[in-house]
Amino acid sequence: RTTVIGSYPFPSWLEHASQDLDSFGRDEIAEMQDDAVIAAIHDQVSAGLDVITDGEQTRFDFNLSFYGFLEGISLESESSRKLGPPAHDQRGKHAITGKIEAPRGLGAVEEFNRLKRLAPAGPVLKASVPGPFTMSGRLIPNDEYPDRYAITEAFVPFVRKELEGLVAANCQEITVDEPSM
Length: 181
Known about the structure:
By secondary structure, this protein is an alpha/beta fold. It has 5 helices and 6 strands. The chain has helices at residues 12-18, 26-46, 108-118, 132-136, 148-168, and strands at 51-52, 71-74, 94-101, 124-130, 139-140, 173-177. The protein is globular.
């Protein structure tokens, strides 16, 4: 069977808009996300893929966007790089300020439900969730989480809950993506 691996490229208009999200309202952002997912679906269906995704079009970064769902961390206020996209290991780090929690999940179930709403009948639908080791990579260890492995262990229940939510939403194909491994 044929499918895509990883994130689908953003349309240029979405890349441009993502640099200035504060200019848009919540409904405008949701409309942009739907439109970008529709474009990714169209390309995959037109190419004849058997298994399609939402192209991860609602994630402005594959694993870093998940940090917005977390409590107990303080996001870096300013990127350490200004020109060009930083490579995975060149990005800044975020401070852990308390117990790491994900009370609203990680957002993959909502992404999958959007895909189900927008996709045509026929292709199998797939969702992707970052693995706990990858999610731990941009966080600075502290007394409660003394190293990357302790931070990774903190993410295991969140990832597991997200996977269970995807199965409950009738997702038949799931990728646990661990590029950091």
